[in-house]
From TrEMBL:
Domain named Blue (type 1) copper: residues: 5-105
Entries under InterPro entries matching the protein: Azurin (IPR014068), BlueCu_1 (IPR000923), Cu-binding_ET (IPR050845), Cupredoxin (IPR008972)
Superkingdom field: Bacteria
Protein's UniProt name: Azurin
GO molecular function term, any single one: electron transfer activity
A cellular component term, taken from the record's GO annotations: periplasmic space
Localization terms from the record: Periplasm
Function statement: Transfers electrons from cytochrome c551 to cytochrome oxidase.
Length: 122
């Protein structure tokens, strides 16, 4: 992600046979995390809007995410331009019958193009 309201990646495929999956995430822009920060949040597609709404009042110090929300399957902290972070999650959290999305929880990013489908590959 850079200094825009979208991600550079258009989809992620998680191999069904791997036990853990790591996402390495880089903010390629120049803006600070409080100016236009980005993070990577994984959830069921049907939960994204509710997570974003519940997280908005939590503020930057909580990555605009509701505390201890079980709907958040994995996430990184919000980072600013030039920074890198990562997260690893167990793929057993995913069900091939469900639809998943990764999104950015920073303010209104969730409601722009900062949503990308996550697929479970055969």
């Amino acid at each position: 992600a850079g200094d825009s309201w979208s991600y550079n990646t258009k989809t992620i495929s998680v191999p069904a046979d791997c036990e853990e999956f790591t996402v390495n995430f880089t903010h390629t822009g120049k803006l600070s995390k409080d100016g236009l920060g980005h993070n990577w949040v994984l959830a069921k597609t049907s939960d994204v809007n509710a997570i974003a709404q519940a997280g908005a009042p939590e503020g930057l110090e909580n990555d605009f995410l509701p505390k201890d929300d079980k709907r958040v399957l994995a996430h990184t902290p919000i980072i600013g331009g030039g920074e890198t972070t990562s997260t690893t999650f167990k793929t057993s959290l995913l069900d091939a019958r469900e639809n998943y999305t990764f999104f950015c929880s920073f303010l209104a990013n969730t409601f722009y193009d900062a949503r990308v489908p996550v697929k479970i590959a055969d």
